[in-house]
Design a protein that fits this description.
With 230 residues, this protein is α/β, with parallel strands linked by helices. It folds into two domains: 135 residues, HAD superfamily/HAD-like (Rossmann fold); 78 residues. A six-stranded parallel sheet has the order 5-4-1-6-7-8. Strands 2-3 form a two-stranded antiparallel ribbon.
Length: 230
Amino acid sequence: MHDLLSDKKAIFFDVGYTIDYPASGDWMFTNRFYELAGERLKQRSETQIRKAREAGAGFLDKDHLIHTLEEEAEQFYQYYRIVSESLQLELTENEITSIARDRTYNMDNYIIYPDAKEVIQTLSKTHRLGIISDTWPSIENQLRALDVFQFFSFATYSFSLGVFKPDRRMYLDALQKCGHDAKETVFVDDSPCNLDGAAEIGITPILIAANPTSDVDTPYRKIHSLSELI
């Protein structure tokens, strides 16, 4: 991998399933959600759950341009309200509020991959590092809690632009902030679709398959942990 990075000036990283993973095994169905809704959730079919997730995600996708943690908590309140109503979980207003605020403010919801900090710290000595992430305002608290925030020089967050990867505006914003040509940069992400968007404008893509569902056939260089970068 050293040969791939030797002529690069900047490395962009995704966060979820690249630097960290969800403590509950699910980004949206947190431990707090399972604590309050888990028994009733077990009585619902996979199809019902999938439709409820899609309904909630549809709301989040509709207006993603947000600025504060409180706006994030309100968005998640509406998400969990939609999920609860769709699945007839009968969560109370206080329970929904508790789940939404936990999703926003509880950084124990995220677990860093064992090798991530060491790799990021090492690479920060030879490259400028950045983030390109579909996320919410709590992301910076998340990165601080993981003790890696200080190694990144710039970041492109979807909530700041109101669009998600692979929208080209995400990658163009990242390039503008880092000040390097696309050919001088690399993007590490767990989604081939997101890497397609980066490749289209000349950023070198690397698929990380730390999450087994990402271990798919790809024309891109593939790694299974960040330690393969050094």
